[in-house]
Each structure stands twice: as structure tokens, then as C-alpha cells.
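Input record, target 12 of the design panel.
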């Protein structure tokens, strides 16, 4: 659910409010800079200054559009798996209903 919310907000170009109070719709609250990259380890959007801080320097960061695309692809793949499973269950249910008639 968290990944879905992140992908949804990234695709809309919104900042992520993940509870650390560092960003809002205007960007990083601490530095008043635009949120340009996404820290994969912390699951948070970062400004250029936060990205260079000790807390994130060694972390993997990617540009926001790339992360949005990646999460969108992951969500679509998982959704397709769920749809396939649902279709199989519906077929099984239909076969059982025919058998019981």
C-alpha cells in the first residue's frame, strides 16, 4: 500500500508526506529546495542539500521520474498477477457450479 501511494503521488508530481516532516508541496521544509531525487533506502523524496547530507550520502538515489516509472511498472506487474489469479479462481468457481448442477 505504501509503494502504491508513493507511485500515485509521484505520478501526480506531489511531494510525499511520509511522516518525517521534511517536505511539503513547496519542497523541502528544512532547506526550501525542490525535491529532485528519491532515496530508495528511506523511501523519501530529497532536495539536493538533503541528498548530500550524511544521512543519505551513501544511499541509492534516483531522479523522481525514473522512480515513478519503476514503481508504476512494479505495480502494473503485480496487478496483472492478481488479475490472472482472479481469473483462474473465477474459472474454477464456474466449473464447480456447473459440476454441482
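The sequence produced for target 12 reads:
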Amino acid at each position: 500500500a505504501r509503494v502504491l501511494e508513493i507511485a500515485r503521488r509521484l505520478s501526480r508530481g506531489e511531494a510525499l508526506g511520509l511522516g518525517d516532516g521534511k517536505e511539503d508541496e513547496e519542497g523541502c521544509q528544512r532547506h526550501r529546495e525542490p525535491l529532485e531525487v528519491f532515496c530508495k533506502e528511506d523511501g523519501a523524496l530529497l532536495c539536493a542539500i538533503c541528498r548530500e547530507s550524511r544521512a543519505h550520502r551513501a544511499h541509492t538515489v534516483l531522479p523522481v521520474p525514473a522512480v515513478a516509472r519503476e514503481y508504476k511498472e512494479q505495480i502494473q506487474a503485480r496487478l496483472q498477477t492478481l488479475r490472472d489469479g482472479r481469473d483462474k479462481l473465477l474459472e474454477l468457481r464456474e466449473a464447480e457450479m456447473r459440476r454441482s448442477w
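The chain has a mean pLDDT of 82.
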